[in-house]
Fold:
Amino acid sequence: MVENDDDKTIVFFLECNNLGAKFVHAVADDVNVADILEPTYVPDIVNSFFSMNGVLNYLGISKPLLVVQVTELADGIFIGCTLNHCIADGTSFWHFFNTWSGISRGDIDPTVPTSQSLPPIFQRSFFDGIINFPIHIPFHHSEIPNERSISSPLKQRIFHFSKEKIAHLKAKANAEMGTNNISSPQTVMGHLWQSMVRNQHCSTNQEVHFRLTLGTRQRIQPPLPEGYLGTAVFVGNVTTTAGNVEHELGWVASQINKAIASQTAEVMRNSSWFNVYGNGFGWGRPIVVRTGFANKYDGKLAVFSGIEEESMDFEACLSLETLQAMAEDAEFMEALDI
Structure:
């Protein structure tokens, strides 16, 4: 970490010292898989299956960048990975995780590069003319926290949308707008946003935001190579009023569509769905994906492809009151598979 007094900025550097990742083996033999899957809300014990809770990204200058915790349950295994987001995005992480599992099963020879086991590419020359390194970040000592805190108690719930329910929502949204450009994820995100705003009882004129993170690997010209290990994301934003979110679903989904369309049609086509169920370490196929404490805040949505073909799982992090109200929202729940 270098502080620059002349322009009041700070620069962070990582020294690649080959110390490796931290590996933790834990046992929770009084916890069953059903204890994780069956409750309405994600149980708090899931957070204990991840290491480095509360550690911020910038602390990676002295703390491990990757920690893997394998927890033995009474009737299953939970693998919790904590990765510093400054060094890798979702594409890099899932490529690493799926390659690692393939090596563990003996399906991949790490000495023979293939599309499934591409060696990581660390070069940053792809950003020449786009980003001036090192990046100078404006700072003040009082603005740098030592750990992440959440101001109010939050709960998490998984909302599952089947292929059939998604198709119905998508057809409705496109018909309302007289188009066929609104995608399935945009439609479901719009449906969730409507219910979240409706059940947080916002005033009609209150400004609300919907921010979404998209990969930009295909937008950079030339596109980043498939094995690039790093972070390449774009944050889109929809700003409107709570009253507008009460419009028909098609209008709300179209606003999300416009935010994504600003990244060009190529990015819209290539916004990746991570292969979260295609891995296995020889203990059987994965049956569920959960996230840990890191990067959680009121209103956070994490989306994963569901275990059934073309289904989706949304992990919503909200206040208990909002989640309870959404569960009683007939218009919202009608589109879910319970």
Remarks:
- Confidence is low (pLDDT under 50) at residues 265-271.
- The two ends are 49 Å apart (CA to CA).
- The CA atoms of residues 39 and 157 lie 9 Å apart.
